[in-house]
Amino acid sequence: MSRTEPTLGSNWDEEAGAPEVAAFMRIDVPADATEVKGAVAVNPQEDNYLLSFVTSERAAERLAGDLHSPDPLEPSHVAPTTSAGNALWRHLGLTPPDRLRKTRWVGVCPPCVVKHGRGRVQWIEMYVHAEGEGRSRVYVQAF
Questions:
Q1: pLDDT tens digits, 108-124
Q2: Cβ contacts of residue 15 below 8 Å, gap of 6+?
Q3: Which pTM was predicted?
Q4: Rounded Cα–Cα distance for residues 53 and 110 (Å)
Q5: pLDDT tens for residues 25-39?
Q6: Cα–Cα distance for residue pair 56/116, rounded to 1 Å
Q7: For the chain, how big is the Rg over CA atoms in Å?
Q8: Phi and psi angles of residue 114, each rounded to the nearest 5 degrees, phi first
């Protein structure tokens, strides 16, 4: 593990990248995805899994639907991410999603929905930011 501290009491798992994060979240990164990035911040209470990539708007919508949230993607009205949360996304070289305009959000507690298939995931949320020309950056965070 790295000595870099993403948040108080946390370290980056140097052996975990996008494939490991996608496997934990049970997300299939679309074949057309570019700029695929992933990391795990190991924390004494709960690890934070981060995954981001650019894909078609259609693929982003499909992935959001696969979360089985009772609510669809909607304009982000979530509280701004804490400075610790911002540091997580900046570790991947990304602007935190709540700092971008026209970002949509969906979140779900997988154990609370039927047929979730994500038994180890307590919470998963997705932000989708339109990049233009039918492409969107997808940000997924889970613990």
A1: 888 777 666 666 888 99
A2: none
A3: 0.84
A4: 22
A5: 999 999 999 999 999
A6: 24
A7: 14
A8: -75, 145
